[in-house]
Amino acid sequence: GAVVSQHPSRVICKSGTSVKIECRSLDFQATTMFWYRQFPKQSLMLMATSNEGSKATYEQGVEKDKFLINHASLTLSTLTVTSAHPEDSSFYICSATDYRVTEAFFGQGTRLTVV
Amino acid sequence: AQSVTQLGSHVSVSEGALVLLRCNYSSSVPPYLFWYVQYPNQGLQLLLKYTTGATLVKGINGFEAEFKKSETSFHLTKPSAHMSDAAEYFCAVSGGLTGGGNKLTFGTGTQLKVEL
Questions:
Q1: What distances in angstroms separate CA B116 from CA A24, B3, B11, B113, one per listed residue?
Q2: Which residues, at least 6 apart from B70, have a Cβ–Cβ distance to it below 8 Å?
Q3: Is the minimum CB–CB distance between A11 and chain B shorter than 8 Å?
Q4: Whose C-alpha in B27, B37, B76, B80 is 20 to 30 A from the C-alpha of B108?
Q5: Which of B57, B59, B3 is nearest to B36 (CA)?
Q6: How many CB pairs under 8 A join A and B?
Q7: What are residue A96's phi and psi, to 5 degrees?
């Protein structure tokens, strides 16, 4: 399968600061990227869908001003958690896909801890 | 709209025994179905997928699943469990290429424990 790289794998930040997570498709052009959030021992919840060159579409209940998503190129999408608080601590996972393939490919995930 | 139900949040089997993880789905369009495995603090690894065609699909590590439209099920099986199979397993559904793209709806997951 295709390779999706997510960076960083772990990050600890202070409350009130912002954190940027990168998701890169290394060997294909990803017209669409998805961002998920996973709480401990729970399933993945879709946060937003981003299409290259367009504004992201956020799921109900997800604050778009808090979770800024940029998908400026066909190989890179970023998720910025702004003014992070301890309740934002979670595991964030991206996936990348293209309209010509039948599946999405996942990054390794980012463990965010806000202290 | 789509949804996935995984029966049993925890399943425990003996090493060498049959593994059966249950998944039922609901979809308003012909579904694409997936099984993923997740190890602690890691991303998701695709085990297998059903899109079209043969309803019995084989995946990696000896896993297979059968798409049963009449039962709206996509149960995951493995004939003989190995200690390394202990992990979290997620069933997921998408609408496929014509049904909304590859946006996945996940089940709540099943934690598989393999005992000696």
A1: 40, 35, 14, 10
A2: none
A3: no
A4: B80
A5: B59
A6: 62
A7: -130, 145
Inform me whether the C-beta atom of residue A2 falls under 8 Å from chain B C-beta atoms. no
A35 close to B (CB below 8 A): no
**pLDDT over 80 (residue B98):** no
Residue A79 token pair: 């998720």
pLDDT in the model for residue A103: 84
In a 13 Å sphere around the CA of A19, the CA atoms on its Cβ side amount to 25
Q: What residue has token string 């946060």?
A: A47
Of B32, B103, B111, the CB nearest to A49: B103
Decide if A44 and B90 are in contact by the 8 Å CB cutoff.
Answer: yes
How far apart are the C-alpha atoms of B87 and A35, rounded to whole Å? 22
Pairing of strands A19-25, B44-50: unpaired
Cα B6 to Cα A86, B74, B75, B80, B105, distances in angstroms: 30, 10, 9, 21, 12
pLDDT digits (tens, 9 = 90+) for B21-35: 999 999 888 899 999
Chain A residues touching residue B45 (CB < 8 angstroms):
106
The yes-or-no verdict on residue A114 having pLDDT over 60 is: yes
Token pair belonging to A24: 């890169």
Q: Which of A53-57, A82-86, A111-115, B3-7 has the lowest mean pLDDT?
A: A53-57
> In a mutagenesis test of the A interface, which of B44, B50, B90, B97 is the best target, namely the one with the most A β-carbons within 10 Å?
B44
